[in-house]
């Protein structure tokens, strides 16, 4: 192989390695772009006991397009409080299928030590700035698609909302599949 061909092969291999490193870094990020309603949020993932225990406590504020998703290994009754919080939150509880089962809006730091949550099992809890649930018309019964990745990162999108008359922006096949799978035929 000639010297110029060797140089080209080395450059191509180097570019491949750099691309793989960038992809690996992005996949290992502890945040994910999340679409809820018409807004997109960067959700910090709390999927370890210590991350879930700390949550957003101690932060002075949070950007409008940022939030946190708490991921639990098992379904359970998870209650949240506003200990060491400095700003109000909207809290959204989801079951293992991604259905919104409970919402608490505009929970103030002054409510501590009161705890909030449903009396039925959930798997995920999303915390956003106060007012985001209302501005996105998110309601109990909506279904969020929760894509889980090996590293714990999460991506969500509202895929079905029983209180809205128009379907979300999915292909006809995806909408029909989502609608049929959400029906309770017992």
Q: What does the model show?
A:
The structure is a single chain. The protein is of the alpha+beta class and 186 residues long. It is built from 4 helices and 8 strands; from the N terminus they run αββαββββαββα. The chain has helices at residues 3-27, 49-54, 132-135, 172-182, and strands at 31-36, 39-46, 66-76, 89-94, 100-107, 122-129, 143-148, 154-160. The strands form 2 sheets. It has a 6-stranded mixed sheet with strand order 1-2-3-6-4-5. A two-stranded antiparallel sheet has the order 7-8. The longest helix has 25 residues, at 3-27. It starts with a helix and ends with a helix. 23% of the residues are buried.
Write a compact overview of the structure shown:
The chain has 186 residues and is of the alpha+beta class. 25% of the residues lie in helices and 32% in strands.
pLDDT averaged residue by residue: 76
What order do the strands of the largest sheet run in, or round the barrel if closed?
A: 1-2-3-6-4-5
N/C terminus separation? 69 Å
Q: Specify Rg, calculated over alpha carbons.
A: 20 Å
Low confidence ranges: 22-29, 149-153, 165-186
Structural class: alpha+beta
Shape: elongated
Q: What portion of the residues fall into strands of 2 or more residues?
A: 25-35%
Number of H/I helices: 4
């Amino acid at each position: 192989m000639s010297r110029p061909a060797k140089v080209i092969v080395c450059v191509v291999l180097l570019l491949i390695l750099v691309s793989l490193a960038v992809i690996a870094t992005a996949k290992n990020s502890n945040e994910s772009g999340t679409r809820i309603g018409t807004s997109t949020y960067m959700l910090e993932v709390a999927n370890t006991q210590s991350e879930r225990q700390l949550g957003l406590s101690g932060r002075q504020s949070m950007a409008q397009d940022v939030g946190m998703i708490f991921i639990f290994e098992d379904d359970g009754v998870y209650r949240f409080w506003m200990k060491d919080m400095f700003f109000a939150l909207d809290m959204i509880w989801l079951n293992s299928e991604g259905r919104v089962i409970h919402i608490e809006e505009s929970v103030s730091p002054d409510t501590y030590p009161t705890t909030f949550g449903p009396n039925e099992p959930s798997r995920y809890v999303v915390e956003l700035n106060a007012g985001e649930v209302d501005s996105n018309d998110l309601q109990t019964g909506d279904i969020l698609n929760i894509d889980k990745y090996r590293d714990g990162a999460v991506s969500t999108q509202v895929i079905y909302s029983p209180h809205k008359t128009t379907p979300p922006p999915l292909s006809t096949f995806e909408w029909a599949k989502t609608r049929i799978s959400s029906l309770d035929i017992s």
